[in-house]
Predict the 3D structure of the following.
Amino acid sequence: MTVHDRLPGAPSCGDCPIRHRAVCARCESDELAALDAFKYYRSFEAGQTLIWSGDRMDFVASVVSGVATLSQVMEDGRTQTVGLLFPSDFVGRPGRDTAPYNVVASSDLLMCCFRKRPFEELMGRTPHIAQRLLEMTLDELDAAREWMLLLGRKTAREKIASLLAIIARRDASLFLRTVSDRFVMELPLTREAMADYLGLTLETVSRQMTALKRDGVIQLEGNRRVTIPDFNRLLDEAGDDSDGGVI
Amino acid sequence: MTVHDRLPGAPSCGDCPIRHRAVCARCESDELAALDAFKYYRSFEAGQTLIWSGDRMDFVASVVSGVATLSQVMEDGRTQTVGLLFPSDFVGRPGRDTAPYNVVASSDLLMCCFRKRPFEELMGRTPHIAQRLLEMTLDELDAAREWMLLLGRKTAREKIASLLAIIARRDASLFLRTVSDRFVMELPLTREAMADYLGLTLETVSRQMTALKRDGVIQLEGNRRVTIPDFNRLLDEAGDDSDGGVI
DNA sequence: GGGGCTCTTTGATCTGGGTCAATGTTCTTG
DNA sequence: CAAGAACATTGACCCAGATCAAAGAGCCCC
């Protein structure tokens, strides 16, 4: 009972243009073949909330295509996005059964899901999967803490530049290339979604995008297509310890 | 070769007034007995930097007493604290060898350290330790993301109230009691350290502390001793979904 | 292809928290 | 106990980013 039995035409692990960081990178291993029985695909439209904070979650999943956000909402509606999920990113936490955040499809989205129980059992049997998961969780923790620096100490302009740099890098890695001169990408977020991630208002995001455009740091065609003529220039604007832009 | 051979009078795992969340909670198990050979204690003075970001780290550790901070610093000196370490908290990441943050003793500090290599080997042999570590890392991730909401969306007053609530809870758990009416605690942070954690300046921290005192949310004796006459009132001020204050 | 969406930009104004500067208050240590 | 040093408060002023408001752009979908 592989994915092809469930959803004809959907990409299988092996077919994925992007190898799932969590699972598919080891598709060749015998242990994971067993997981195919518990694997299924789900697709969502842009704007749809896949999971509400507090919901029971009986699966883990990784993103096949599209982008999703993790967000926290205060009682009065103030919203903070706490994570972006790109293709190959993993969501779900073995050993816990309620979701701590809202998960929202930011664009049309395809997820590759595994029933949680069998996944946990596999984890118990195969130490390297548990280890891989720890590895990934540590990566997420580092990303979250880097974002804390951004939220607490960076200016609006630096925030925008940082976000663009991060998206550019993820975008480039999808196609296995480096962020080079004249890099063109498609923004997977509305101005409001950017604002929610950066701890700003959408007006400030818009103004700073305009300013970066005016100063030649980026070029814009329409609202979503962004060209980065010089990635190092962008990194300077982001205030990061520059690391060259290569992935 | 137990700890007592190395540092006479230092608390052993079993003697710790606080059981280390990471390790000591399972001291009874046979696997961990082996770790005693690789265990040693180190103490630091308030203000001392234990670990510099980028340093090679050949040990993992947990806090026995005192408080430490994890912080990130930008090239121009802007600083953001990304985590607080209380007694029983764990630091260090099996599978990685350089520290991603500065670790600074915020008060006088005693750490219980394990050489990393043997610890990793133990982890490979005993799945429940790996699982425990994943558990802890997920807790840290949740804490980091909750802090992202604070940094991105809360007002200065809400930030201060949130920090006080968190410290009160950790403080209470040290002594195995609940945060009740007229809870008294000792702040383990200077105004500047609070500011670095909250994404504020020390002046703003001071002003908001004064305001909370004026409004009867807290009482202050000296700079460090804080009394919380009504913990639910404090939680209201923090803007959190109140959960009663019990641990 | 035009009507009604949603998303985005831009402007005018306001304000929370930053900055700079002076003064107070604890802690240390001799 | 006095003298310093480190830490904290308070005041005056300013500015980055929020808020409120009004036009533009895309973009579906009949």
